[in-house]
């Protein structure tokens, strides 16, 4: 007989009974942020019961629900860094992410359900195989009363967490294309819109100097090249601007030559002036000097928490002198001076990239 327990009334003993039922191959209906789920351990006999109760085609795999991203990464030890970073940006949340797997399966769908509904999963075996608690092709269940009788009677327990907060299935996003430098595929748009998925995945980094024809375009090109070599460029928008730039100006000849010497290309660069719209769209704003830092703070004080000195990133300014913090202006200097600018910026690249990959733009 199916036991129905209200989530707010559950005791430690109830959680133990629930876990024991799962370990014994039972099925349970659990609340989520999206819609109610039908869950079991990811074992053949238990998942067979899910397919039978739901009337689901065997060719459609079940998602695995975890409680932490590190559990997912440990399950897929060779997961590309760019995909692991994308997971950290999207989870927990109303998203099912498709990841690559070695044989015998080519992929697996994973979720981490956010609090408060997700808290229950921390008391249960992990991962759980989960699908929506509805009959295939019929409406999803947003409340316990909407769970079909065929599914309810197949369960050992139903946990009543009230009405689902979103009452829409999770968005399914295939992250596998990221490993090839391509954009992820939205396989099903659900609770989180496709535009929001892409916004969360991409971190915008803006380098700022004066004219946007020397230092900042070199920094932009060097970080983009580093990100491409690390295989994570698909998660980044890297750009540059100048506090007093003339829109449309090309990079200086010396900047182009210094770039070319480092296998970078500034031939298509065109300067642009810093504007509020550019600041609004940037997650990190990295300046070449303290003077640029102060100018941006004065012009755009609302963005104080994301303006940094490139050479100090990610820590803030703590009384250091400009000799330590500033990338000198190479305008009018030789190509060799420009090359020194690239050398000065290079040690900051891992810190900038690491922060960008961990950034939760939500």
How would you describe the overall organization of this protein?
The chain is of the alpha/beta class. The chain folds into 2 domains: 198 residues, DHBP synthase (Alpha-Beta Complex); 157 residues, Rossmann fold, CATH 3.40.50.2300. Helices cover 32% and strands 18% of the residues. The chain is built from 13 helices and 14 strands. It has a 10-stranded mixed sheet. Strand 11, helix 7 and strand 12 form a beta-alpha-beta unit. Helix 7 crosses helix 12 and helix 8 crosses helix 12. It is elongated and about 85 Å long. The mean pLDDT is 93.
Blueprint of the fold:
Blueprint: E1 3-6, H1 12-23, E2 28-30, E3 37-40, H2 44-54, E4 63-66, H3 69-75, H4 81-90, E5 95-100, E6 107-112, E7 128-132, H5 149-152, E8 157-160, E9 171-174, E10 185-188, H6 194-201, E11 203-209, H7 215-230, E12 236-242, H8 253-261, H9 276-280, E13 284-287, H10 290-299, E14 307-309, H11 322-325, H12 335-345, H13 349-358
Parallel strand pairs: 1-8, 2-8, 4-6, 5-9, 11-12, 11-13, 13-14
Antiparallel strand pairs: 2-3, 3-7, 4-7, 5-6, 9-10
Offer a quick outline of the entry:
By secondary structure, this protein is α/β, with parallel strands linked by helices. It is built from 13 helices and 14 strands.
**Sheet bearing the most strands, described?**
10 strands, mixed
Please, how many helices? 13
Strand order of the largest sheet: 1-8-2-3-7-4-6-5-9-10
For the record, the count of structural domains works out to 2
CATH architecture of the largest domain: Alpha-Beta Complex
**What is the strand tally?**
14
Shape: elongated
The residue fraction in helices comes out at 25-40%
Q: What is the H/E string?
A: EHEEHEHHEEEHEEEHEHEHHEHEHHH
Q: In the CATH hierarchy, what is the class of the largest domain?
A: Alpha Beta
Cα Rg: 26 Å
Low-pLDDT runs of 5+ residues are none
The CATH topology of the largest domain turns out to be: DHBP synthase
Q: Which whole number gives the mean pLDDT?
A: 93
Supply the helix-strand structural class: alpha/beta
CATH superfamily of the largest domain: DHBP synthase
Q: Separation of termini? A: 43 Å
């Amino acid at each position: 007989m199916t036991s129905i327990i209200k989530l707010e009334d559950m005791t430690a003993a109830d959680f133990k009974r629930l876990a024991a039922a799962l370990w014994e191959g039972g099925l349970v209906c659990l609340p989520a942020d999206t819609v109610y789920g039908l869950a079991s351990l990811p074992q053949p006999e238990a998942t067979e019961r899910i397919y039978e109760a739901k009337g689901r085609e065997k060719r459609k795999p079940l998602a695995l629900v975890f409680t932490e991203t590190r559990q997912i990464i440990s399950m897929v030890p060779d997961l590309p860094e760019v995909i692991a970073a994308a997971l950290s940006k999207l989870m927990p949340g109303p998203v099912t992410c498709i990841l690559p797997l070695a044989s015998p399966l080519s992929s697996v769908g994973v979720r981490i359900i956010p609090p408060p509904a997700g808290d229950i999963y921390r008391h249960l075996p992990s991962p759980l195989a989960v699908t929506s608690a509805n009959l295939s092709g019929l409406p999803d269940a947003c409340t316990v009363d909407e769970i079909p009788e065929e599914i309810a009677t197949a369960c050992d327990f139903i946990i009543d967490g009230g009405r689902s907060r979103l009452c829409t299935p999770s968005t399914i996003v295939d992250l596998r294309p990221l490993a090839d430098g391509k954009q992820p595929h939205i396989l099903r748009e659900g609770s989180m819109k496709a535009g929001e998925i892409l916004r969360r995945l991409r971190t915008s980094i803006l380098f700022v100097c004066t004219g946007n024809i020397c230092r900042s375009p070199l920094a932009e090109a060097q970080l983009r090249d580093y990100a491409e070599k690390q295989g994570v460029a698909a998660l980044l928008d890297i750009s540059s601007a100048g506090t007093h730039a003339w829109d449309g100006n090309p990079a200086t000849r010396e900047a182009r030559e210094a770039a070319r010497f480092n296998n970078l290309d500034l031939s298509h660069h065109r300067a642009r002036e810093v504007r509020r719209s550019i600041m609004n769209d940037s997650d990190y704003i990295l300046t070449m000097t303290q003077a640029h830092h102060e100018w941006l703070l004065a012009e755009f004080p609302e963005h104080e928490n994301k303006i940094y000195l490139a050479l100090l990133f990610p820590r803030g300014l703590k009384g250091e002198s400009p000799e330590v913090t500033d990338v000198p202006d190479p305008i009018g200097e030789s190509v060799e001076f420009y090359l020194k600018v690239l050398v000065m910026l290079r040690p900051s690249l891992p810190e900038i990239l690491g922060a960008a990959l961990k950034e939760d733009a939500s």
